[in-house]
């Protein structure tokens, strides 16, 4: 008799198997007990028929507590009524670890309670589906960039400088000097691009931003590619192909999880159709003003969630908003060739109210211009001498972008809040568990 996982059940129909599981819920109907089981690969039902098992096994099936771990032995059958499509008719149960008074019961619980018990909430069906989709997006990310000829270059988490200003940095002491938790690996990826052509990083980033919105985390994960000898338009093509690739792989490999979440697959399929629309910041401002919903919006201001949501609603696919004002963007962006007031950049806004999921730009290549911008930003020029060296020794046109993984997960899964897109979220007032 083979020991298998639930996900492998489809390969063992009408075979007797053994599976290590936890009990998520149960009910009984006279001479039949129905056990809802999980093992980390999937969820399915175990059926215990009184007439087919010993009295001890049937009594155990009726009394076993939620989240007790056990081995179940039985025969796999097809079950067309469930998302998963299979169940196990149980012959025997062996308890491994008992569970008493499991705090997250099948009833409704408040968000604070669930967040306090996040280490246990991860076991629930919806959280399982979200984390599996997140995992598939990470797998597909590595596959996409490897297939595209990128080299992974790991950026440091502790840095001595800030790529996007100092107001959102976590400060720490690095022996006898100051250091910060990384806001972004971008500057280091630019160095990698000058060495290896096309590179990407995937790692945690930190923003000391006192925000409580459903789109913000204090700690989140970023995918940050940088490409040498590449202008902005070529970068946009890579960005949209990457997003379409992520969505398609979720559709291809997470059908079960999408069903658990009730996500509309036809809507997701639409997001794989390229190209994505592009509008300028100027056009976006006019759209907002003409809508009558944003009478206060003025050219030169950054967009908040309501503005981004409205703009994205005007399209049925993600939309690039291009060439924002220089004054509201970081120092490293390349100035527009015919305008002094904007830079060559783009944000990708996701439909359905999820806002920006990618920010990117062509990078400035002139060392003197960058030096001036660093000073204007109030940053210490000495901290950026290594970065300026990239322009002094063989500078080339280059572009890059950053995707916030959790925002993309939230959008693709259709969840309301970003806190459920990461295993252990760090929020303004939460660092437990």
TrEMBL record:
GO terms for molecular function: asparagine-tRNA ligase activity; ATP binding; catalytic activity, acting on a protein; nucleic acid binding; transferase activity. Its main location: cytoplasm. Residues 131-433 form the Aminoacyl-transfer RNA synthetases class-II family profile domain. Keywords: Aminoacyl-tRNA synthetase, ATP-binding, Cytoplasm, Ligase, Nucleotide-binding, Protein biosynthesis. It catalyses: tRNA(Asn) + L-asparagine + ATP = L-asparaginyl-tRNA(Asn) + AMP + diphosphate + H(+). GO terms for biological process: asparaginyl-tRNA aminoacylation. The keyword Transferase does not apply. It is an enzyme of class 6 (ligase). SUPFAM superfamilies: Class II aaRS and biotin synthetases (SSF55681), Nucleic acid-binding proteins (SSF50249). Pfam families: tRNA-synt_2, tRNA_anti-codon. HAMAP family: Asn_tRNA_synth. Belongs to the class-II aminoacyl-tRNA synthetase family. This is Asparagine--tRNA ligase. The lineage of its organism: Bacteria, Bacillati, Bacillota, Bacilli, Lactobacillales. The gene is asnS.
């Amino acid at each position: 008799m083979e020991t298998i996982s639930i996900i492998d059940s489809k390969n063992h129909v009408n075979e007797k198997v053994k599976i290590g599981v936890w009990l998520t819920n149960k009910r009984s109907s006279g001479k039949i007990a129905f056990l809802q089981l999980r093992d980390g690969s999937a969820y399915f039902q175990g059926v215990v028929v009184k007439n087919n098992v010993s009295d001890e096994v049937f009594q155990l099936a009726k009394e076993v507590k939620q989240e007790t771990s056990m081995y179940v032995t039985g025969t796999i059958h097809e079950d067309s009524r469930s998302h998963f499509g299979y169940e196990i008719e149980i012959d025997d149960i062996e308890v491994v670890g008992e569970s008493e008074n499991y705090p997250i019961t099948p009833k409704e619980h408040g968000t604070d309670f669930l967040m306090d018990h996040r280490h246990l909430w991860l076991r629930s069906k919806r959280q399982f589906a979200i984390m599996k989709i997140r995992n598939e997006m990470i797998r597909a990310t590595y596959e996409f960039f490897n297939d595209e000829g990128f080299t992974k270059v790991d950026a440091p988490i502790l840095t001595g400088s800030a790529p996007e200003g100092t107001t959102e940095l976590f400060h720490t002491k690095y022996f006898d000097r100051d250091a910060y938790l990384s806001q972004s690996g971008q500057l280091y990826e630019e160095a990698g691009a000058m060495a290896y052509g096309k590179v990407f990083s995937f790692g945690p980033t930190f923003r000391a931003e006192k925000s409580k919105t459903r789109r913000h985390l204090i700690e989140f994960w970023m995918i940050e590619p940088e490409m040498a000898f590449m202008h902005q338009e070529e970068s946009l093509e890579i960005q949209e192909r990457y997003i379409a690739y992520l969505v398609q792989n979720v559709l291809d490999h997470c059908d079960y999880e999408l069903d658990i979440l009730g996500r509309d697959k036809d809507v997701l399929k639409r997001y794989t159709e390229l190209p994505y629309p592009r509008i300028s910041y100027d056009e976006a401002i006019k759209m907002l003003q003409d809508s009558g919903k944003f009478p206060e919006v003025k050219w030169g201001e950054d967009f908040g969630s309501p503005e981004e949501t409205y703009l994205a609603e005007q399209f049925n696919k993600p939309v690039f908003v291009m060439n924002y004002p220089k004054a509201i963007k970081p120092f490293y962006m390349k100035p527009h060739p015919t305008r002094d007031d904007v830079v060559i950049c783009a944000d990708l806004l996701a439909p359905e109210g999820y806002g920006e999921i990618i920010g990117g730009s062509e990078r400035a290549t002139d060392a003197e211009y960058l030096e001036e911008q660093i000073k204007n930003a109030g940053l210490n020029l000495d901290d950026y001498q290594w970065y300026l060296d990239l322009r002094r020794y063989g500078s080339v046109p280059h572009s890059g972008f950053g995707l916030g993984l959790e925002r993309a997960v939230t959008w693709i899964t259709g969840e309301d809040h970003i806190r459920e897109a990461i295993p252990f979220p760090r929020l303004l007032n939460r660092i437990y568990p």
